[in-house]
Design a protein that fits this description.
Nuclear Transport Factor 2, Chain: A; 3-stranded mixed beta sheet; 2 helices; 23% strand; alpha+beta; 3 strands
């Protein structure tokens, strides 16, 4: 997986579906937008990577919040925090909550 599509997931609820949700979110967040046959809007648009750090982080959060709500409607993004990797890149930690909460 490209470092551009690395992320950590955390869930705020317990469910026997967590493994399936994790698989769905991982596929969505690791797929470049425009590359999924039959649904070119599926995936994450990374056009903002060359923008200033704070702008890029805000646009990333908006992008994944919208895409998860659209493609996995039973879930919502609760928060995103950022962790620096040993290589000096920022890796998002995405906290997911049940959409019904």
């Amino acid at each position: 997986m490209s470092s551009l599509y690395q992320f950590n997931l955390s869930f705020t609820f317990a469910s026997e579906m967590l493994e399936e949700y994790s698989r769905k979110i991982s596929l969505l967040l690791s797929t470049p937008v425009g590359t999924m046959p039959l649904d070119r809007e599926f995936g994450v648009d990374m056009d903002f990577l060359d923008m200033p750090s704070e702008t890029a982080k805000s646009l990333y959060v908006a992008e994944i919040t919208e895409k998860i709500a659209r493609f996995i409607p039973e879930l919502r993004v609760e928060s995103v925090s950022w962790v620096a990797s040993p290589a000096g890149t920022l890796i998002p930690k995405v906290v997911i909550t049940n959409g019904g909460d």
